[in-house]
Design brief:
The complex is a heterodimer.
Chain A lengths: L15 H9 L1 H4 L7 H8 L7 H16 L2 H7 L1 H4 L5 H4 L7 H14 L3 H18 L10 E6 L12 H4 L3 E3 L2 E2 L3 H15 L6 E5 L11 E4 L4 H15 L6 H9 L14 H13 L7 H16 L3 E5 L9 H6 L9 H20 L8 E6 L5 E4 L7 E3 L3 E2 H8 L1
Parallel strand pairs in A: 1-6, 1-7, 2-9, 3-10, 4-5, 4-6
Antiparallel strand pairs in A: 2-8, 7-8
Helix pairs in contact in A: 3-8, 15-17
Chain B lengths: L2 H20 L2 E2 L19 E6 L19 H7 L3 E8 L6 H10 L18 H9 L6 E4 L23 E3 L1 H8 L33 H6 L3 H8 L5 H15 L4 E5 L11 H24 L7 E6 L23 H4 E7 L7 E3 L3 E2 L3 H9 L16
Parallel strand pairs in B: 1-9, 2-6, 2-7, 3-9, 3-10, 4-5, 4-6
Antiparallel strand pairs in B: 3-8, 7-8
The chains are: A alpha/beta, B alpha/beta.
């Protein structure tokens, strides 16, 4: 089926708000190439479970596509129109399974050596969209915080090597009340701008007490969900003919209720948390992977104004089958390896924050929990500098906020 | 910026670093280089290929910040090797299909997760058919069941009967144990991207009873030695060394895979995998120098199957995967060393990963007629 054949009745299985969004824009969807439209539908089908920032971006994108004249639209999407699609993909039910279509399209692009052409088309389209609808910077400049090294008594190798060149490194930070100061700062910011999903706290272990206005996700609190997920994975894998691709597709389809999550007052956040586990790689078994991926997804999807990410020790490496099948057992931890993971994770958090609007004004702080090392990055912080002067968390924050 | 521009930029970084760190010369100035010396290639030449897998980035290997992870190759191998700073892989970046492409010299499009043979003739088939060599002269040591079909293609003019013998040390160890045992679990790690994925074996794989007849290794000794090792790749190298000592194949292909733990998102384990692989590559070179059948007549070729995604590509998640197809994930390096190959030389020109098979063809005197690559003249 081609996009030009679309009819409103085909979207009956979509959640209500998604259905309304799509059917209101059918005329423009009919004009889009098949290599492009399922990508939009993949976002649209989840509209009911999207964060406000995502909803806004999707609505703006569709509205922009509708505003373009036919010749402009042709120009914007010419790269996509040149992508050749196999008959098998054309016959795929991409209306109801757009994510699976995109996955299969990706394999098709690799196999037919069209991946580079697709990348160019996607980059060109994104650049045009960005120029036509520049994203809005947050009113309060963004603040990212990464707390790493929980449970490590001493570590003599240099930390924050990738971050230091972008800001100032401090080697004599008083660690007392450091975490409390950071959480209090978050709470103050949450009072200043109280938009939903604007302030996030992600913990790789069990969360410590924090302001209820802050959106909180933690590896520890998801323990029952992870156990249910690993059990489901274990059963799925034992079915004859189950391969990695089929398993991935199956996992992507699991909803909160499939993993024993009782309906809460925040189905959007429930869905987000489950997706971290069903779509992330390693997030089911390693808390450092969960924390880094959670931060990345929170930044990409919710575009928070404040994000505090606290890494915790992950379990030691064991054979992957054993890691999956030993849910519930008390694992042996690897604090030093987790520190190295988190050091890289902190750098990725900063990179992902810098991809968001208002990057030139945003600030970032990374701290070795309970120790004296920290790095701060911000518009007024001299890059690549070091200080051996005694300082504390409040002072560090005052320099970047 | 094109893929080639990106690759050139990566190559410059590697070259400048290697010049400082290992005192190597640039290809264009070979004549002036005090390090450049080469002896004639021997007649009874052997070739050992190591794929530095699965998927290692520039910044964790030969870029300045990666140097701490490859001390053995820097110290022991690079000064005695010709180093190519940009080997570009334009194919599918899945480990099995990419390794199959390296082995055939043609970009394979087989399903990465299926137990299928390559569609184009492999380097082993070319060698055995052209040179009329027995199956015992070409061996593959590979990490997991997913690689069990790598030795022999489905090509109608080659295929059945012309392939390499394939040995899967993890599979062998599993067979040697009546049940899972805690002492060996660390050697039986599964495919990190797809836990539990163990396609049925079909092909030329090594049977347990041949441990004794071919490798002169009892099952008990095998198990005892395995207990002292720390990873699946260590197990592979242990078996490869045994193979070199007892069978001495002319063409030996060793596929490393520990590094692919990166898919689990743990940077420390990824870097640990690189450090281990660096050490194992150096050990293989030492084995080549120590074994009478190999010393003085063996070319060692080391290259990653491909890289991993760049930190800066928003479509990926940095080192974790190789899904974006960006320049960093496609651009790797090649170390070539042995008699007839100039020492301490760096070449910046782009080499295609498909060039490996016709290059081995020139070294071992066979024609890789179906390969899409070209021989790398600088090491012939």
């Amino acid at each position: 089926m081609q996009p030009s054949d679309l009819k409103s009745g085909q979207f009956n299985a979509y959640p209500p708000q998604a259905k309304a969004l799509v059917t209101a824009n059918l005329a423009v969807f009919r004009e889009l190439p098949l290599s492009f439209l399922p990508g939009v539908l993949r976002e649209a089908i989840d509209y009911d479970y999207k964060f406000p920032a995502e909803r806004r971006a999707l609505e703006q994108e569709i509205s922009n596509l509708a505003k373009l004249s036919p010749s402009e639209r042709l120009q914007w999407l010419q790269g996509f129109a040149k992508i050749s699609i196999s008959p098998k993909l054309e016959h795929f039910d991409w209306v109801n399974y757009p994510a699976q279509f995109v996955e299969q399209l990706s394999a098709h692009l690799w196999t037919t050596h069209q991946l580079d052409a697709f990348r160019i088309a996607a980059t060109d389209y994104a650049d045009r969209l960005h120029a036509a609808m520049p994203p809005e910077a947050p009113k309060l400049p963004r603040l990212g915080i990464a707390v790493i090294g929980q449970g490590v008594d001493s570590y003599d190798k240099p930390l924050f090597r990738k971050l230091r060149q972008h800001g100032a490194y401090f080697s004599r930070v008083a660690p007392e009340n450091g975490l409390r100061t950071l959480l209090d700062t978050m709470a103050a910011r949450a009072k200043e701008t109280s938009l939903q999903y604007a302030h996030w706290y992600i913990d790789g272990g069990d969360p410590i007490e924090h302001d209820p206005a802050i959106t909180s996700v933690s590896y520890g609190s998801l323990e029952p969900v992870r156990a249910a997920l690993l059990k489901n994975m274990h059963s799925a894998i034992e079915k004859p003919g189950m391969g990695p691709e089929m398993l991935r597709t199956l996992m992507a389809g699991w909803r909160p209720e499939d993993l024993g999550v009782k309906s809460s007052s925040d189905p959007v956040l429930d869905r987000f948390q489950v997706r971290l586990l069903t779509e992330g790689s390693g997030t089911q078994i390693f808390s450092t992977s969960f924390t880094q991926w959670g931060a990345r997804e929170a930044l990409r999807r919710a575009e928070p104004t404040t994000l505090l990410v606290r890494f915790a020790p992950r379990q030691r490496l064991k054979p992957m089958n054993e890691l999956i099948s030993s849910a519930g057992e008390r694992p042996e931890l690897d604090p030093i390896g987790s520190l190295v993971d988190a050091d890289m994770g902190a750098y990725y958090n900063w990179l992902n924050q810098q991809r968001l609007p208002g990057a030139e004004k945003s600030a970032f702080l990374a701290w070795f929990e309970g120790h004296n090392s920290a790095v701060v990055i911000g518009p007024s912080v001299p890059r690549g500098t070091e200080s051996n002067e005694p300082t504390d968390m409040k002072q560090l924050l005052s320099w970047i906020l | 910026m094109t893929l080639l521009d990106h690759a050139c930029q990566i190559a410059r970084t590697r070259r400048e670093f290697l010049r400082d760190a290992a005192g190597v010369a640039i290809g264009a100035s070979i004549a002036r280089s005090p390090f450049a010396r080469a002896s004639a290639a021997p007649k009874n030449r052997k070739v050992v290929v190591i794929t530095f897998g699965g998927g290692a980035r520039d910044q964790e290997t030969f870029a300045p910040e990666g140097q701490e992870n490859v001390p053995n190759m820097l110290r022991d191998l690079i000064p005695r090797a010709t180093f190519f700073t940009q080997v570009v892989n334009r194919g599918i970046l899945g480990h099995y299909v990419a390794t199959a492409s390296l082995a055939t010299g043609a970009y394979e499009t087989i399903n990465n997760f299926a137990s299928l043979p390559p569609e184009n003739p492999t380097v082993f088939e070319y060698y055995r058919k052209d040179r009329k060599r027995p199956s015992s002269d070409t061996w593959v040591v590979a990490p997991s069941n997913g690689f069990n079909r790598i030795g022999e293609s489905s090509h109608k003019s080659y295929g059945a009967g012309f392939g390499a013998r394939v040995i899967l040390p993890k599979h062998l160890l599993s067979s040697a144990m009546s049940s899972r045992h805690a002492d060996y679990e660390h050697l039986l790690r599964d495919n990190y991207e797809s836990p539990y994925f163990t396609p049925d074996l079909a092909g030329n794989e090594f049977e347990l009873q041949q441990l004794e007849s071919l490798l002169k290794l009892s099952v008990d000794d095998f198990k005892t030695n395995a207990r002292t090792l720390s990873s699946p790749d260590e197990l592979s190298v242990y078996i490869a060394r045994r193979l070199m000592k007892q069978v001495a194949p002319s063409l030996l292909w060793i596929t490393m895979h520990d590094i692919d733990i990166a898919h689990a998102g743990t940077y420390s384990l990824y870097v640990e995998g690189i450090r281990r692989t660096d050490r194992l590559c150096s050990e293989i070179w030492k084995a080549i120098e120590d074994e009478p059948e190999y010393t003085g007549n063996t070319t060692l070729l080391i290259l990653p199957d491909f890289g991993r995604d760049a930190d800066t590509d928003p479509g990926g998640n940095g080192f974790q995967h190789h899904r974006t197809g960006d320049a960093l994930s496609r651009t790797t390096w090649l170390i070539a060393m042995g008699p007839g190959i100039r020492e301490g030389i760096v070449h910046d020109r782009a080499v295609d990963s498909l060039d490996l098979v016709p290059t081995i063809g020139s070294m071992l005197s066979f024609s890789a007629s179906q390969s899409q690559g070209k021989p790398i003249s600088e090491i012939l």
